[in-house]
């Protein structure tokens, strides 16, 4: 259940949300979170990270968590002050300041695709922020279809997954920053009659 707050506090959160939204969008321009899917040994994954840094012209400030089945990589540029607090195969948790502005938490994720691991991952993610008033931005592949209009074809929409995902957002005072472009972020790349499309990638921001 959500804690009850006064309308004054809610108004304060709503008023300050614009600042966090702008910070998140700005971070999207200077931070690049890349999920490296490959079948090569980790040492080759490391080479891939530095090679891509050169291609994109990004200073070699990079952390990667690469395994045989894939992993996460995160680059950031000189105007970003970033400290890594925690990382594993599914997330990189950081504290960020851009151009000397106030610090906020940025968590870059590749959530598990397996049903039995999904809710456990989001519960563990919530333990990273004991203070629900902290400025927090979550970016990446949530592996959750949050509403029926985010899915085209394939298995039926999972109402249970969507329910506890929205409960997570409410519990930690997060809202989704609306994206532009196509309605879906993932496709199985099959022919039209067998095609499945879903929206899985999101940016979530705190209201504070």
UniProtKB/TrEMBL annotation:
**Highest taxon of source:** Eukaryota
Name it.
Uncharacterized protein
Q: Which organism is it from?
A: Hibiscus sabdariffa
Tell me the organism's taxonomic lineage: Eukaryota, Viridiplantae, Streptophyta, Embryophyta, Tracheophyta
């Amino acid at each position: 259940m959500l804690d009850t707050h006064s309308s004054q506090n809610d108004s304060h959160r709503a008023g300050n949300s614009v600042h966090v939204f702008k910070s998140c969008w700005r971070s999207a321009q200077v931070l690049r979170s890349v999920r490296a899917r490959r079948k090569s040994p980790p040492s080759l994954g490391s080479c891939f990270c530095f090679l891509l840094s050169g291609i994109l012209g990004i200073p070699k400030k990079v952390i990667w968590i690469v395994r045989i089945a894939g992993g996460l990589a995160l680059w950031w540029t000189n105007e970003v002050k970033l400290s890594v607090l925690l990382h594993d195969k599914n997330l990189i948790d950081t504290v960020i300041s851009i151009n000397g502005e106030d610090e906020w938490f940025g968590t870059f994720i590749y959530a598990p695709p397996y049903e039995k691991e999904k809710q456990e991952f989001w519960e563990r993610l919530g333990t990273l922020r004991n203070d629900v008033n902290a400025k927090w931005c979550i970016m990446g592949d949530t592996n959750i279809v949050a509403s029926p209009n985010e899915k085209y074809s394939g298995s039926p929409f999972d109402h249970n997954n969507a329910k506890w995902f929205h409960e997570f957002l409410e519990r930690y005072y997060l809202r989704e920053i609306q994206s532009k472009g196509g309605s879906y972020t993932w496709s199985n790349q099959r022919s039209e009659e067998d095609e499945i499309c879903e929206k899985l990638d999101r940016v979530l921001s705190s209201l504070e």
